[in-house]
Amino acid sequence: MSGHSSVYASENYAGAEACIACHKAQGDAWLSSDHYQSMQRADENVVLGDFSGTKYTFGKRTSRFFVQDGQYFIETFNQQGKQQTYPVRYVFGYRPLQQYLLETEPGRLQAFDVAWDTRPRSEGGQRWYQLQDESVTDPEHPFFWTGYYQNWNSRCAACHTTDFEKQFNSETNQYHSTWTDVNVACESCHGPGQEHIQSITDKTYSSDKTGLKDLGEKLVFHFNDGDPIARPQQSPQGPSLALDTCGACHSRRSELKELSGTEPYHQQFQLEGLDEPLYFSDGQIREEVFVLGSFLQSKMAEAGVTCTNCHDPHTGKTLLPGAQLCSTCHAPTVFAAPEHTNGHEGADCLDCHMPERVYMGVDARRDHRFHRPSPKHPNSSSPCKTCHGDASEGWLTNALKAWPKRQGASPDTLGEWAALNQRLSALDVTAVNAASNLLNEDKLPSLEEAALVEKMVVIAPQRMLEKVSRMTDDDDPIIRQSAARAAASLPEASQYQLLLKLSQDPIISVRAEVASTLLSLRPQWFSRAPQLTALLEEYQQILRDSQDHPGANLGLARIASLQQQIPDAIKLYELALRIDPQHIPSLLSYSDFLRSFGNEDKARRQLELALRYGSDMAAVQFSYGLQKIRDKAYQQALPHLTKAANSTEAIPRYAFVNAVALWQLNYRKDAITVLTEADTRWPGNYDILVTRAKYAYQLRDVTALKTAVKALGEYYPNDATYKQLQRLLN
Predict the structure, then answer these.
(1) What is the DSSP letter of 724?
(2) Could you tell me which residue ranges the Cytochrome c-552/4 domain spans (predicted)?
(3) pTM for the complete prediction?
(4) d(Cα 240, Cα 270) in Å, to the nearest integer?
(5) Phi then psi for 68, rounded to 5 degrees?
(6) How far does Cα 463 stand from its chain's mean position?
(7) pLDDT, tens digit, 9 for 90 and up, residues 554-566
(8) What DSSP string runs through 127-182?
(9) Cα 396 to Cα 30: distance, rounded to the nearest angstrom
(10) What distance in Å separates the CA atoms of residue 179 and residue 10, rounded to the nearest whole number?
(11) What is the pLDDT of residues 84-129, one digit of tens each?
């Protein structure tokens, strides 16, 4: 276990013992926290599972848990499907479940996917159980425990230790990771402590020169003038504790550099947006999103509330139990009154406004959006189903419509947002007007604004051009990142100007989004615009810092290909697929790359693997259909192209190619039908409109031709093809 003992990863970090020596009360509180228990070295004091030789069988696998010479071991399937014994090096967590980290090779730790349920036996606990379904017990499954998705070094360590340094060697595919404290300790939040200790020693310490990270200010909230909601007396100043400290780990995000522990959030991370399946379309949590994305949607965040207004920073526990805590800012005479609870005796604020969702089999976590159940979106009534599980959707909707309205309550803006977000997710063009009106009110949290814009620009790119352009000047990096993503759906001339402007943004998360968008759109722009050279170099470094992720190597491979560094590109593609052999974007991109150099056979093998692992993905079906066309197996191509075009993940090109293939194979009415449906789904797409008109003309279908030409003229009145067809009709 070289590099896994008490080796300090940085001389600037002092370690928790040094902190506790002076801050005993805070240290004692921390010792009772989940942060302290986030990870511990495996020994008899912390291991809670039954390692008495117990066997656990599930799916294709039987695992045995035992102790030998004071060391804990698990015997289970290895990557080849053979039984192998692995040492347990660390435990992960302690309630309501505990996982175990196994060392599969020196320096590489994997989170074993059979966990110990630590709840009392009376609650169903004190048992081994499988975290996912039985399919993951197959060594070929992408989530098999020895694979990339269960690797501790790349996916868990940064938020479960203090001062973690990954130290991944891409040449050997090995880790030499180090850290200061084995768990989430003092310096995870306060930053490196050596300068603080030195200032005490040198007697240079002062309140404005502490030597520690500035955590920001916790506002105090007061009731005033009969207002049933407490308000702060000032606006937040300085850094945001929720975003820059707690959010660093309590969020679904990607890392942009080796973590510093002191830099602002958006200079280190990219926050995931409110997209399904991470969130439901009403913004409630669905997958494991770890709080921040939910909290930033809330009125609490808007008002200046931060984590420590509700949670003790050292124990992590809430300052008061349940609704008692809510009543410190929401007057119980109003919010616990029958008029607010609609007569529901024993109603609890948390159950209605912070519904729970169970993860990892037994771990119930609350949604921190603090949303108001709304009749405007079906999932918004999900908290009600805790007690009204047998009620119909209609009954729940009507019950919420009839709920007493508190005098002075704000409009149900987020319920309206949720309804529109769902309609836009289904590419409902009729939702664009209402969504535009809601955006113009400027009342939405940034994440919710971004979610609408990124869907609207796909449906109505010309209409969204001005809005996306304004977003490039927004104060919030979340909005500017969204502008970079939205630019991908705009006309090419507009894309370039917007992305060029954002490439100079002061925030690295915005610049990274620009680089990613450019690579997926027109990578040659990097060579055409010298001012983008620095951006490309910065993005390469971001990707190099994450080379234990397949996506990072895919990005580097694309850049190497762009720069005509062909051997390097091949090496990077192969590394991506060594880390995750089932990484669909890498398989598809590598196939295209190989084909460009005439290696058709190997390119075809990548597509066959992609179809094997990702047959439910539209991009896979489309790429495989094109391969069948290149193989001149036209009839075999059709089912794949049709699946791609009909998928919820489809883009206009999939429908266009599907229609062309149908036409060429003499299924001409079917081709017209595909184009007509595509025009409804993606109104204004030039290729679809022109092709629909041309095919109607060739069929001599005057009615269809008039409809198609009229639609083309609405969007492209100066187009030469439109004018030619218009003359024919006249």
Answers:
(1) H
(2) 153-191
(3) 0.93
(4) 16
(5) -145, 125
(6) 28
(7) 999 999 999 999 9
(8) EEEESS-GGGGSTTSTT-TTSGGGBHHHHTHHHHSBS-B--EETTTTEE--B-SBS
(9) 43
(10) 8
(11) 999 999 999 999 999 999 999 999 999 999 999 999 999 999 999 9
